[in-house]
Structures are given as C-alpha cells and as structure tokens.
Design a protein that fits this description.
The complex is a heterodimer. Chain A folds into three domains: 100 residues, Rossmann fold; 71 residues, ATP-grasp fold, A domain (Dna Ligase, domain 1, 2-Layer Sandwich); 241 residues, D-amino Acid Aminotransferase, Chain A, domain 1, CATH 3.30.470. In chain A, 35% of the residues lie in helices and 26% in strands. In chain B, the strands form three sheets. A four-stranded antiparallel beta sheet of chain B has the order 3-10-8-5. In chain B, β1 and β2 form a beta hairpin. Chain B is of the alpha+beta class. Chain B contains two helices and ten strands; from the N terminus they run αββαββββββββ. The termini of chain B are far apart. The chains are: A alpha+beta, B alpha+beta. At the A-B interface, β3, α3 and α4 of A face loops of B.
Chain lengths: 455, 152
C-alpha cells in the first residue's frame, strides 16, 4: 500500500500547535512523523508523540527551526523524505524549498519559484494583474527615479497613498502619506528603511484605503492542473498587523461576489502553475477587492475554512505533495454554516506583553461545534523564545449567531492558570455590538483598544 | 549538505585521518577549526601514554569519590550518530575510569561525511557512559558523567 507513495515519513520543521496539527494529518494518512525540536521544546506534545523525535539545536531559532543545513541533515539522518514547513520559520523561504528539492526530498508546499515570485510584492502584483486579479490602484511597478514623476503618479492615484517596500510584507516597510508636500521625504525615508530591513530599497506606491476589511481567499492546487478556491475568510480584527480573530464566511458580502473573486484566484494559480495550499489576501472597501499579497503556506486561521467546507487542508497538502490528484471538484465544495477562530495567546490582557511560564491549569471547553487546536497540556511550560500563540478555539454554528454563542460558552468554560491569556479580550470582542454586527474594518480593534485604555 | 557548506566544516574520515597524520609528523598534538555557527572540528593526535597514566592514577581517585559528589555531564553540541571510538582506532576516546582534560574529544557525532567532536567541558575522570553507541543522538543529550578533578 505504501510502495507507490513518494514519501512515507514526514519531517515536521516547525513547533507548537501547527506541528501537532501536521502530525495529526500525517497519522490520519498513515504517514510516520519526525519531530525536530529545539532544546526549549523538549516537553512539547508533538515531540512526545512523534514516531521519531530529534533535538536539533538550542532555543535560538537560527540554530534550530531556521537552520536549513541542520534540517536537511536531520531529514536524511531520520530517514524522512519529505518536509512540512508549517507557517512562519522557513515556510516561505524560496531558497530552502529549492534546497529541499535539490536534495531529492519533497517540500510540502509550492515550488521555490512560486514562493520567490510572491515574496517580491511588485512581481506578485504584476503577476496578479496579468492573471486578472484586481489590485489596489497604484504604481504597478517600482517607483520612478524623478520626484516629479513620483508626485504625478501619486496625484493620479489620489491621496492618501501608501508607500511600500517591494521586499516587505506583514505590515513592515510601509508609510502612509496624506499630503503631496510630504511625499518625497517619505519615499526617501522608506527606501532607506527598506534597504536596511530587507536589503532591497525598491518601493512601490498604492492608494491608501481608509477603512478596508481584510478578506482572504483560500486556494488548493494539485500538480495536475486543478486549482480550487475554498471560500473566503474575514481577518479584519488585527492588532499591529497580527490577526486576533478570524471568521468564515465574511459577514455581509454576497457569496456571488466571493465566488467571482475566488475563481479569479484559482485562475491565477493555474496561470502560474501554483502547487499546494495558498492564500490571496485582499483589502475590501466599498464593494471593491484589491489584492495585497499571497501567502504561499498553510495559515494559522485555516481551521475556519475547514469547518465550513469540511475539507482537511493539511491532509490535502500532504496528498498533493504525494503527487495525488485532488478528488474534490469545485462544484463539490459547499459552504455550510459559520466558523470563528479565537487565537489564544500567552500574553497580558491589557499590556499584551508575552506571559511565558508553566501552565498549572488547562481545562478545555467542549460541546457541539467547538474545536480546540493546541499543543499545550497542563504542566507544560511555555518557552519565552517564540511567538505567544498557545492555541486556537474554533466555534462553529449553523449561523454566525450560533457560532458566537458557542464560543462564548467555550471561552467561559476554558480555565487557564499559571500564565496570562487573552481569553477576556475575546469575550469582550464577542460581546461588542460592532463585532456582533460584523463587517469591522482593519482599524477597528486598535481604535477600540485605544478608547478602552483612555481614562 | 546543500548550499552553505561553509557553516559546518565538512571532512570525510580519510581527510581527518590524513590531517591527523600530518599533525603527528609535525609534532603537533591537536588541531581545531571553528565554523561561524559555533561548530568545531577538533583533532587530537594519538597519545598512548596518558591512557596508561590514567590507569595508574585510578586508586588515589577512588579515595576522593566521597568528596567529589559533583558530577559534570558531557552534552552533545549538535546531533548525529554517536560513537565513543574513532572509526580508525580500536580503543575508545574516553572509557569509564579514564582521565580527560577540558576540550579533549570524548566522542564523535557522525552525520553523512561530517564528524562533530564531543569534548569534555572540564578536566576529570569519566565515571559513567549514559548514551548508546551507534544511536542517532540529539543536541544537548548527556552522553557521559565526569567527576571534575578540581571538585576532588
């Protein structure tokens, strides 16, 4: 049964909840798992449960989860022949994806070429425009040299504009300019910062959308030319460009509109020969979608899509990497109900400072429509070296109201001691009239937090 | 190894043996190079005398056992297949009862053509081997216990 498979043993090059999520999908498909971990993650749950566990380095990610050579050596030493990078760390590192494949191993993700194309924001945008995906009006390429030309371009697009680094992303390397007289100085400053931060001073310019929502489309593509879109997610509730709560489908957007944009994303994937799971991120304002970037990996918030489509995205990633054809067709994908994910962070509820330490109590919620994805167990010590995500609670219901009600019960049931968490923040958000109404813009959470903090 | 071989010095056992031969001819006792990520290749030329010396000093040391209750663990600086004996030698680097100096090679981690030395952190006596020869061993694994000379 296993003879004609490309790989039977998968090395999971990640940690935390996503490592456990990948391990579960591997097990379900009869694949063995190798957990590689840093010295700080010895007691992690997926490490304990892996078929093979190997500590590859100290806590510093540069010498463990980001150590490309070490990961390749560990893969061969443990007899694994495929690597799942999860999200973060090396998941969107084109050179690593290439190195894995050059070593004769399978990278469970897109090709290095696709990752590189989407990593450069100007190339990504040009590719999307060519494939018919709507983009934010702007320079559609690198900014010209001459200040007069830059100014003319900005006037044509219309102020306010946002100046962005081509090598940036995730909220880094960008500056909003409201007035023409501030533009040239802002361009100089952003270019110098971009050179320092990304080693690439190239900038582009876009119209700055004032109150957009963050809407994204999940895609899944096999290596036989099939590209599917799995609906949209609304991830507008963000703090410092970090998503806090995500939901699917996006409230108040006509499914026909989403279907149209979804099909364009799938078409773009066919156009560039994309492979695996991916996400097209858009700003959405006044009924207009504008592409901002594509994430070439599985995302933290993938469970909300899984809940409403009944597609196991991580298992599909594994099947696609085996070279299998997608067995689902677009017309089989039906969106049922509503799902909301609350990201649980080990952080102070008011200051948002990380709160690492030993979890002395960890009582999980349950009941219909409640899913918990977490690597934490009672007695587990959250190390201070990595991000503060300790799990996700996903509430599903026939309607958005039912999903919210179930989540409220679940969050009240959840008891965590020994560390601080943002459970109260999620309770406050789910009780907030604007959130309950839906359709918040991406600035809502930060404004709300500011108002709450004001005396 | 793909790409950045500069990160870890990469030698096969033949090359290490030939470097060791040149060192012995030149009358040098050891050779060490470090990579930017902290990994090192450490070669010590054959020294038959200390082995017999350690045997001689064993009786006085057993007297000191009670005083020296502080054991030091020798931990692996990387991961790899663990060997306590150099592939080209018959005798182990540091068997139980032997005395080693800080930075002496006590074991090797092998990964493909890479050999990463595991070195003693202190001068002292090897009192217990705590890891399995030939096993794929992770970073930071305790492979032996030592009784430091200074603690006696």
């Amino acid at each position: 049964m296993t003879d004609n498979r490309r790989f039977n043993r998968v090395l999971i090059a990640n940690r935390g909840e996503i490592a456990l999520r990948i391990q579960r999908a591997c097990r379900q498909l009869g694949l063995e798992t190798v957990a590689v971990y840093s010295d700080a993650d010895r007691e992690s749950r997926h490490v304990q449960e892996a078929d093979i566990a190997l500590c590859i380095g100290p806590a510093a990610a540069s010498r463990s989860y980001l150590d490309q050579d070490g990961l390749l050596l560990a893969t061969r030493a443990t007899g694994a022949t495929a690597i799942h990078p999860g999200y973060g760390f090396l998941s969107e590192n084109a050179d690593f994806a290439d190195a894995v494949e050059e070593a004769g191993l399978t990278f469970i993700g897109p090709t290095g070429t696709s990752i590189r194309m989407m990593g450069d924001k100007i190339t990504a945008k040009r590719t999307m425009l060519a494939a018919g995906v709507p983009c934010v009006p702007g320079s559609d390429g690198p900014l010209p040299e001459s200040p007069d030309e830059i100014l003319a371009l900005a006037e044509k697009v219309g102020f306010p504009v946002i100046v962005k680094a081509s090598g940036g992303g995730g909220g880094r390397g960008m500056r909003v300019v409201h007035r023409a007289e501030d533009l040239i100085e802002a361009v100089g400053l952003t270019s110098r910062e971009a050179q320092q931060a990304f080693g690439n001073p190239t900038l582009y310019l876009e119209k700055f959308m004032q109150k957009p929502r963050h809407i994204e489309i999940q895609v899944l593509c096999d290596t036989h030319g099939t590209a599917l879109w799995l609906g949209a997610r609304d991830c507008s509730l963000q703090r410092r460009h970090q998503k806090v709560l995500e939901e699917a489908p996006p409230p108040g957007i006509d499914p026909a509109v989403i279907a149209e944009i979804g099909e364009r994303c799938a078409e773009a994937c066919r156009h560039i020969g994309y492979r695996g799971a991916g996400t097209f991120e858009f700003l959405y304002e006044d009924g207009v979608f504008a592409f901002i970037e594509m994430n070439t990996r599985v995302q933290v918030e993938h469970p909300v899509t899984e809940q409403i489509t009944d597609v196991d995205i991580v298992a599909e990633q594994l099947r696609i990497a085996q070279g299998d054809r997608l067995t689902i067709r677009q017309e089989d994908i039906v969106f049922r109900g509503h799902a909301i994910e609350c990201r649980l962070n080990a952080e102070d509820g008011l200051t948002f400072l990380p709160s690492p330490g030993t979890v002395t109590r960890w009582d999980l919620p349950g009941g219909p429509g409640i899913r918990v994805d977490s690597h934490v167990v009672s007695g587990y010590t959250i190390p201070p070296y990595y991000d503060s995500l300790i799990g996700k609670i996903i509430g599903y219901g026939a309607t958005r109201e039912e999903a919210i009600a179930r989540l409220q019960v679940a969050l009240a049931e959840m008891k965590v001691e020994g560390i601080s968490t943002n459970i109260d923040l999620h309770q406050d958000l789910l009780a907030n009239p604007t959130v309950r109404k839906g359709s918040m813009d991406i600035h809502f959470l930060e404004k709300w937090l500011e108002e709450r903090a004001a005396p | 190894m793909t790409g950045s071989a500069s990160q870890i010095p990469s030698f096969d056992t033949d090359e290490i043996a030939s470097i060791a031969g040149m060192l012995a001819q030149a009358g040098l006792e050891s050779f060490e190079i470090s990579g930017p990520d902290g990994t090192r290749l450490f070669i010590k030329t054959s020294q038959p005398e200390p082995q017999s010396e350690t045997r001689h000093t064993q009786p006085p040391l057993s007297k000191k056992t009670n005083a020296a209750n502080t054991c030091r663990a020798v931990k692996t600086p990387y991961f790899g297949v663990l060997t306590f004996t150099h592939p080209l030698r018959d005798t182990p680097f540091a068997p139980v009862g032997s005395h080693v100096k800080a930075d002496d090679v006590v074991a090797l981690l092998t990964l493909e053509t890479l050999q990463i030395p595991v070195v003693a952190s202190v001068d002292g006596e090897v009192i217990e081997i705590t890891a399995q020869e030939g096993e794929l061993t992770g970073f930071g694994t305790e492979i032996m216990k030592m009784r430091p000379t200074s603690a006696a």
